[in-house]
Amino acid sequence: MKKYAIVVAGGAGKRMNSDLPKQFLPLLGKPVLYYTLKAFLDAYEDLVVVLVLPEEHIEKGREIVDAYFNPARFLFTAGGETRFHSVRNGAAMTEQESIIFVHDGVRCLVTPQLIRYCFDSAMLNGSAIPTVSTKDSIRQLTASGSMAVDRTQFRVVQTPQTFHSKILLPALNQIEYKEKFTDEATVVEAFGIDVHLMEGEETNIKITTPVDMTIAEQILLRRISASASEV
Ligand SMILES: Nc1ccn([C@@H]2O[C@H](COP(=O)(O)OP(=O)(O)OP(=O)(O)O)[C@@H](O)[C@H]2O)c(=O)n1
Ligand SMILES: C[C@](O)(CO)[C@H](O)COP(=O)(O)O
Fold first, then answer.
1. Does any ligand 2 atom lie closer than 6 A to the CB of residue 83?
2. Which residue, 13, 49, 56, 107, is the most exposed by fewest CB within 10 angstroms?
3. In terms of pTM, does the model score above 0.90?
4. Residue 33 CA: which ligand is closest?
5. Arithmetic mean of pLDDT over the chain
6. 104 touches ligand 2 (CB under 6 Å)
7. CB-based contact 53:76 (threshold 8 Å)
8. Which residue positions hold the site described Transition state stabilizer (predicted)?
């Protein structure tokens, strides 16, 4: 089965408050995007990455790929106005009869193991949406204030959201954009197809605000020291 990873890195990273979009910021000396791309390339030798970048930073993305990876495994395209439009641009580069991972370029701590679990689950169920439980209590805002809700009834959603191409491509191409489309599971559901949830990884965080860089650095350091003590 053909495998594509649409890695969306077309955002501006406003919540990071940095001039350079967060996907290019250095993490232990390498760009955030490096770690994301490496996880996918390591997961499968026959996987092609569709790298979606801000128009003005496509060259920067190419430089990262040239410096660290085999460029023959990459396709490049420009991002769109929202994440949904960036994913749609990436999907236009893929072909039918494939498994397509859609992953945030800034979820750089994803592991090859989770990527493989998602593939297996999407082969079996048509889709695989990694999710984790919430460690915090949750309250719903109401007209009069707020009310406690049962947190066991909620899951926190991650990427890579993984689909058979025959599900994802028609959903992306035939549905008109709505503001609630913050991920692909929502798009596919709006197209009338249920999605399959699976267990994600606690460390698969999305780098969004500056504190996430510190957390990611610590997790990476812990991984490096764990793999050094194995040898
Ligand atoms: N038009 C967009 C918006 C977002 N993304 C990508 O989608 C992922 C998740 O989005 P988010 O964390 O919201 O990134 P930004 O939009 O860059 O951040 P912000 O909302 O703070 O501006 C990121 O890898 C981001 O680069 C994209 O490809 N195209
Ligand atoms: C796709 C996502 O990472 C799943 O949790 C999330 O919806 C992205 O949201 P953002 O507002 O683009 O950061």
1. yes
2. 56
3. yes
4. 1
5. 97
6. yes
7. yes
8. 15, 22
